[in-house]
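Notes from hallway chat w/ T.B., transcribed later so I don't forget. T.B. wanted the structure written out for a chain they're using in a teaching module, and asked if we could keep both sequence and structure tokens in one place. Agreed to drop them here.
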Amino acid sequence: MIRQNRDTGYRVINESFLSLMGSIFIFLVKQATLTVGIVLMTTVNSVASGWNADSLALSIPSSVTKSPEDFAAYLTGNFPKESDKVLALYTWIAYNISYDGKQAETMSRFHSIDDFVLYTLKKKNAVCQGYAEVFTSICNQMGIKALTVHGYNRVNGNLRTDLGHAWNVAKIDGKWHLIDVTWGSGYVSRGNYRKNFTSEYFMASPDSLIESHMPFDPIWQLLEYPISHDQFIEGEGDRQTWYNFSDSLDLYYTQDEIDRAESTLRRAEATHANRREIIRMYRRYSDYLSNMKCNREISHYNESSTTFARAINNFNDFQELLSKRKASPARLNSLLKSCGELVKRALRQARDISPCRSLSAQEIKELINHINDLKRAVSTASRSF
């Protein structure tokens, strides 16, 4: 969708939250048996006082923009300060990637964010997630903490809870900042996309951006007194609860992916993200968390299955050598001992698996039964050998 520009048209926002979140999950399969660039000024205010965005965008060689790794290496080698690196990246993306709403229809074919980023750098067309993920990827390659934020918008006073939008947060020179490259890149007027670079959305003020950008997780407001989804949707209410978002962000980076998602959902629920106007977004994020948890359980299933397969191979080797009398008793004992240890490990792994939508309790039970069958066979062989 699009956002109306104050003067000449519309500034771009994005596709449905489903396409933002749903296309990046890959369920695991269950197993069977140096060119010098222009040096930027050191403050954001310099953009408005002599800094030439056109020259900067043209100064970055196209040869280094094919991959996040090469792009990051170039920026790191040519721009000394973090703020310079990130501003150069923001400017290049805003100038060189164009908004294309049709891209939302093709996102499901990508098997990973990395593939999506490479495709976006190659085609130079994207919806807002493309802008945001390219920014996140290259920042992270430079060692700068950055994340893609998902939420929704208020556009010229009109609330758009049926649509999703993606933007960024980045920790630049020790401080977290909000960045929206999509809204900094251009606008749509009379159905046509037009480039119209603005630095307004680079390191935007949290108090300013919250007027138009509501993250699903309130932590990404970067406000000490964040607003609730109720307040954003209804446009009223005082900010009364103080929130130490800096400490929460430090904790965020110590969590694994599932813990992060669970914390996000808790914070979102605490700010009433499950209200009617955004219930679809809430349900999609709940599905996102469920999918990750299911991926984890399938990974555990695969791990147990792999260990079980190794135990079977050892037991088969033992039986073959025993029948052909081709091994010493020490070798046979070693195979049986190794098989027994693998069986115990496979059982421990299997008993830690929980059922989910793509892995039934019956499948887990059958795996455990098969492992126990082998356990009994190994015990019998140990007694008779």
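Follow-up for T.B.: The longest helix spans residues 279-324. Might be a good example for the class.
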